[in-house]
Design a protein that fits this description.
Layout: H1 11-23, H2 47-69, H3 71-75, E1 78-79, E2 84-85, H4 102-107, H5 111-125, H6 135-158, H7 165-172, E3 176-178, E4 192-193, H8 198-203, E5 207-209, H9 216-239, E6 248-250, E7 256-258, H10 277-305, H11 309-332, H12 334-340
Antiparallel strand pairs: 1-2, 3-4, 3-5, 6-7
Helix pairs in contact: 2-10, 2-11, 5-6, 5-9, 5-10, 6-9, 6-11, 9-10, 9-11, 11-12
The structure holds ligand LARV2P2M and adenosine-3'-5'-diphosphate.
């Protein structure tokens, strides 16, 4: 996942270079490709992963700063209870400060479907997933990782043996469903209804108020985009031999080795020469890159126009927890790795 200049030579390139040297009557082999003997810790993301992960808090910080400094945003009326600017088109500071903006309605509100579609297109169509004795096993393991990440999305935002984690957190922190307009049958004292989910509260005409509302948008956009980065990045980079660094894994005997020891050799593309980034990604990878880019844009919009900074931070932390379990834990728990695998291995 780093620059093409560090690309390893394929066996055929090495043998060609070797032949040229023999023709020139020299007995020296070409210098070996630079080896990186440094082992990354299996317990933490690799340096490239860490650099990419740092972009998320950076976007959130930049958004917070922008909202503090932008005169239009500062001047626009803000509803602290709803954690959003006025939604009237004439008052909202930007099209993206409105909940009914098309990117929100068609993309984020259907976000998991987009992420699933991009992932599916990549796994079904990319040459790295075709051929080799383990083709089916690699696809099944990718599917298992999708189930784990999707399970986390379901538990946090949709359903967790009852209300989802976001709604449970909201109520644990003192939040309630309040009805301002009218008292309806079933309400407790002071217009506060015993409703346990944000969706049910909204459906009954109430407002979900008073608690800590983990940002569902930040959660979904971080979880989904980094899932695609992991699934497409490692697979495409390993296949095209763009790898400048390697994940390390703990083996059954406790030894720490590069994850490549568990990889199947055939899946790497051998002869086509240096591929461009677009060729390396293929159709599914390009769709995933577009979805990831949109996620980053909408994350920035959420950072600027919605929620408190602490609600955005908890959205980020809850997403990172799911990503750690799916992508880092298997590196140091071999039994888990044998079920979920590692992308590209
Ligand atoms: C550990 C293993 C557990 C096993 C669990 C198995 C999981 C199986 C899940 C089955 C359903 C999967 C469906 C996948 C296909 C789809 O993607 S369909 C859904 C499309 N819908 C969305 O993408 C909705 C996305 N929106 C949201 O999540 C929320 O709207 C939000 C963005 C979080 C914001 O919430 P608000 O309430 O609007 O603030
Ligand atoms: N980038 C964005 N664009 C539009 N609306 C956004 C948004 N980020 C958050 N919101 C809105 O802010 C509210 C809280 O978002 P969340 O908790 O998911 O982060 C949601 O409102 P609604 O639930 O009224 O649609 C959501 O639609």
């Amino acid at each position: 996942m780093s620059s093409p200049t560090r690309r390893y030579k394929s066996p055929s390139e090495l043998s060609r270079a070797n032949n040229n040297n023999n023709n020139n009557n020299t007995t020296h082999l070409p210098p070996p490709p630079p080896q990186n003997n440094h082992r990354n810790t299996p317990y933490l993301p690799t340096p490239t992963e860490l650099a990419l992960l740092t972009l998320y808090p950076t976007l959130l910080l930049f958004g917070a700063l922008f909202s503090l400094l932008s005169p239009e945003t500062r001047a626009a009326p803000y509803d602290t209870l709803r954690q959003a600017h006025a939604q009237d088109p004439s008052l909202a500071p930007s099209y993206f400060a409105r909940k009914d903006n098309l990117f929100n309605v068609l993309f984020v509100k259907r976000g998991w479907a987009w992420i699933t579609a991009a992932f599916g297109a990549f796994v079904l169509a990319h040459p790295a997933y075709r051929g080799g004795g383990n083709q089916t096993r690699r696809r099944v393991r990718a599917g298992v990782r999708w189930v784990v990440v999707t399970g986390w999305w379901v538990f946090v935002t949709q359903w967790c043996f009852g209300p989802p984690i976001i709604d449970r957190g909201f109520r644990w922190s003192g939040g309630k469903c309040e009805v301002v307009e009218e008292m309806v049958f079933g309400f407790g004292e002071g217009g506060v209804k015993e409703v346990v989910t944000a969706a049910a509260c909204k459906a009954s005409g109430g407002s979900w108020r008073g608690g800590h509302d983990i940002s569902g948008h930040v959660f979904l956009l971080v979880l989904g985009s980094f899932f695609l980065v992991q699934e497409v990045g490692w697979v495409a980079a390993r296949w095209a031999r763009y790898l400048g660094e390697e994940r390390c894994v703990v083996m059954h005997d406790g030894a720490v080795k590069g994850a490549g020891v568990e990889a199947e050799r055939r899946e790497q593309q051998e002869e086509a020469g240096v591929l461009t980034v677009l060729e390396t990604l293929g159709f599914g990878g390009r769709l995933a890159a577009a979805v990831t880019g949109l996620c980053a844009w909408m994350l920035l919009m959420t950072a600027i126009y919605f929620h408190t900074w602490f609600e955005k931070l908890t959205g980020l932390v809850v997403a990172l927890a799911g990503l750690y379990v799916t992508y880092i834990l298997p590196r140091w728990i071999p039994a888990l790795r044998s079920i979920v695998g590692l992308p590209g291995i």
